[in-house]
Structure formats: structure tokens, C-alpha cells
Amino acid sequence: MRQMKLLLLCLFWGGVTVSAAETDSDTPTPSADETAVRAAIDSYKTAFDKGDAKAVAAHWTSTGEFVTPGGETLTGHDALEKSFTEYFKATPNVKIELDSVGIQFISPGVAIEEGVARVVAPEQEPDVTEYTAVHVKTPAGWKLDSVKETKVIVPQTHYEQLKSLEWMIGTWVDTSDDSTIETVCRWTKNKNFITRSFKVHIEDRVEMEGTQVIGWDPDKQTIRSWLFDSEGGFGVGMWTQKENQWTIRTLQVLANGEKASGINIITKVDDNTFKFRSLGREVDGVLLPGVEEITVVRQP
């Protein structure tokens, strides 16, 4: 019965634990050539932001090539200047932002630049590409000899549908007289799901553990959750929200094959506190007492 009680507590509630540490490594002093390349990159950005097609084209060598995201190849100053002149005329006040810029020297006179370019025009969605640029050292300074851009495929995300639950990300621990429930809550990549991994501690041992996955169901147009525990049980939940309160209707199959159901209510008090209660709990047709409202506080 103790295991059944703990299982039901885990099925009807979860707390949250996350820990992360970041260390900063010492940044080496850039060489004179790297400083010069970065200055050339900054100069290119300045010319682009001004809409100066002649100055933009001048950043290439006389035989430099630009492969556009659409696959067109432009070669030489004249072709580049003509293309950029038409582009700036059709897209006034456009700006460029460069992210994750990395520079690697493959020889004293050749450097490879890689990064992400974000072109921002008024009242338009940003145009994002990944690029690779080859810089060569010339008597006139560092010039672009080759640039190739590739469209970035933006992954589908359901973050907008799940962001109301973002406050759950963090560390939460619920402790009673004889047990502690510890849970880890984090986003998955692209923020399409939230995972909640829990462990039930009794004295000095882990009695049970499991994982809950929370996501958006585009078919049912609602938030759903799936739960799996180390005893072999699993379940699903359907979430509905009214202001700062979430109601979760749950259905589970316990490890012994029994069916369980219930209604959980989570009420957010603030970013560091929520209240939880459970009612209408049933296992194979047998009604169980509800869980009276408890207050859970975020751990540092």
C-alpha cells in the first residue's frame, strides 16, 4: 500500500529539480590578423546598413564570388554592385546582424569565417541564413574571396502554446514525514516539450522514479502530458487553463494492470509558489480520498 500511495502521489503531482553550471573559459587575445579580419567584417556591416552597394562590393576581391541563398553566383565587383544596388532599392532601410561569428586561419593569408546572418527589413520577418566566407590577405587589406549563404530552416515550435507553463522550469522539492519527492523540469530542444523527471526518496533510498512529458496536441488543440514510472506504470493527462489555474484530467494504467483516474488542480501563486490538490481519484472503480491542498515552494 505504501508503494501504491507513493505511485498515486507521483501520478497526480510532480515537483521539479534543475541544476546547471556554466564555466567561462579564458578568452585568448586575438592576433593582429584576426583583429583586422573582424574590422573588415564590421566595415562590411556598416556599408550594408547604409545601403551603399559600391562600398559593399568593394569588400570582395576583383574575382570574388557570392553564392546567394537561392543558388545564384555573382562574380566580380560589377556584378556584386549591380545586384546590391537593386536589392537596396527594393528593400530600403534594411540592416544586417551577424551572430555566432567564428574565424579560423588555415594559412597566414587565408581565414574562414562562419556564422549566422539575420537580415532585418521594416515590417518584414527577418531573413536568416548560415554563411561561410573566405577572407584573403591582399595589399589593400583583408578581402572576401568567396561567400556562400544557405537558408536556415526554422524548426516548428509550440512554445507559444506552452509558455504559460514556463514558470515551472526550475527546482521544486516536496517533503512529508516519511518521503521526499524531487523533480527536474526543463525544456526540450526548440521548446516543443517540457520534461519533468521525478524521484521518490524514502529515508536514504530511491523508492521510485519516472518521467512526465508535457506538450501541445495540435489535433485536440490542448496541452497533454504523458507519464512513465519505474514500476512499469504509465498514463496520460489533458490540461485546461483558466487564468492562473490548470486542471489536469488523468488516466493511468498501473504496473499491476489496474486503471486509475483523477483530477489534479495546480494554482500558480507566483513564479516561486504554487498550490496543488487532487480530487475524484479512483483505482479500478474504488474511490480514494482526495489530496488536500498543499503549497509547494521553489528551491534555490
Automatic annotation (TrEMBL):
Keyword Cell membrane: no
Domain annotation DUF4440: ranges: 37-144
Keywords: Signal
Matches recorded under SUPFAM superfamilies: NTF2-like
Record bears the keyword Hydrolase: no
Entry-linked InterPro entries: DUF4440, NTF2-like_dom_sf, Steroid_delta5-4_isomerase
Signal peptide as annotated in the record: 1-20
Protein name: SnoaL-like domain protein
Organism: Gimesia maris
Lineage summary: Bacteria, Pseudomonadati, Planctomycetota, Planctomycetia, Planctomycetales
